[in-house]
Write a structure and sequence with these properties.
- The chain is of the alpha/beta class.
- Helix content is 28%, strand content 23%.
- Strands 3, 4, 5, 6, 7, 14 and 15 form a 7-stranded mixed beta sheet that branches.
- β11, α9 and β12 form a beta-alpha-beta unit.
- α6 packs parallel to α7.
- The radius of gyration is 20 Å and the shape is globular.
- Its cofactor is Zn(2+).
- Belongs to the zinc-containing alcohol dehydrogenase family.
Length: 355
Amino acid sequence: MKALVFHGPGQTSWQDVPDPAVKDAADAVVRVDAVTICGTDLHIVKGDVPEVAPGTVLGHEAVGEVVETGGEVRGVRPGDRVLVSCISACGRCGFCRENRYGQCRGGGGWVLGHLIDGTQAEYVRVPFADLSVHPLPAAVPGEDAVLLADIFPTAYEVGVLNGRVRPGDTVVVVGAGPIGLATVATAQLFTPGRIIAVDLAESRLEAARRMGADATVNAAEDPEALVRDLTDGLGADAVVEAVGVPEAFELCTRMVRPGGHVANVGVHGKPAALHLEDLWIKDVTITTGLVDTHSTPLLLRMTAAGRLPAGRELVTHRFELGQMSEAYDVFSRAADTGALKVVLGGPRHDEVRAA
């Protein structure tokens, strides 16, 4: 089969690799019908995630059809259309028993495209299939479903739930890329008083307004002043960092109110300063986290019911599976291309939806 293989920082290739096969009784092999690229994949290619060994097939989000299962798999069978979660869960360790699948110590957690071969391929082996793939309702198109493999549960769990968003809150989302936009969408489930989106790209701020942000501000135009003005100088109740650079994290800590929450979602490749000389007295809670995907069944039901925007708002570019290099190029130059999410698989559409 063909797959996108990581060969070291800055080096990938779409090449022939052996077909995956069931290795353990809990495995499933899935034919990939739709796959997407994550900002974390870009971090891997840059060399920010040194645990990824050269020779690894990248990718951790996919929709496809089960073609083979191990003897212990009970939840799916060949022929089933499924969502492949970005997190694999053994279901037995202490963390899995607490629904903290991202911290699995039984061989799961974030392994696809990280510690084992991933989804940016024609086929993928998924460990612990009963907890790591989700049967798809017929009402959910693949383009919508693939966004529930990572960005929507990440935004909801690591951003909104960790940020303790409550009715009436002022919520600031720093970074209006795919995760930030999914945060804007899922924060509305808790009826905050206002949502403010911060980004450097006007196209992404426009997308944030479409997703429901009440106010937007360019990161170069003093977002701190806007937050002060809108909160009578107090600061935001919840601030979500969805970029992964030191400047964005430090900006978040300056915009949060006393007693508020900073939820870091971004993947950081460099150290960020924690200004405890300012924060120690403010009773601020700062959370980090890898998504657990415990919310995926809930988000799937909401998508089937039309309660989440998913692909119709977030997918801007579409490619055939074999155009992986082109898709990476477009996604990595989002400031120039207007890319939010790219989806590979199915027929090629040359038209690009406005970002």
